[in-house]
Amino acid sequence: MAGTGGLLLDMAEDTFDEAVQARIWAMARTLGASEWCTQAVPGVNNLLVTFDPLMTDAEWASQRLGTLWAGTVADDTPPAVIDVRVDYGGDFGEDLPEIASRTGLTEDEVIALHASGTYRVAAIGAMPGFVYLTGLDSRLAIPRRHSPRLRVEQGAVVIGGGHAGIMPCSAPSGWHILGRTKLDMFSPHRQDPLLLHLGDIVCFHDSRKDCPA
pLDDT tens for residues 92-116? Predict the structure, then answer.
């Protein structure tokens, strides 16, 4: 249970499972069309489902979710691929030297590893448009900062734990800053406020080199 009106389905094992995550996305879409579920929020290999406890019995909801999960298969719709140009290091990536020191890599090696990965949008949360990206090279997986910064600028390209992310707005954050992109992750003025969606593939590119516009 996650309170009187919520259930958390935790499918996480020792390592992230992309096939499980794809089923979670599909189940969230199914629940979004149901009458009893008020919200289905995918996490990284987990799913938070909320409902009105005055209208829906928790035991019934739990059994219903078990049945739905057993019958859920991942969609075969090809994901969108989004290229993200990044200005790494310098004034835009103040944590690059520390990341290099903690990982035993050079700054150029850190940049090359980050830019060579293929990332997937596993979950969206924390703030509108903030994406949790899987696919970070394990050599770059370092704990988040002990003391979060009070302000990290919009567009900051960040890593924390085993995930990568991009700041959709200026806000406090304990993630490490590698660089910055000019792309706008979230805008209420667009028809679709979100630039990235669940399942999208993200490819980072070093702006100093030839890369997509």
Answer: 999 999 999 999 999 999 999 999 9
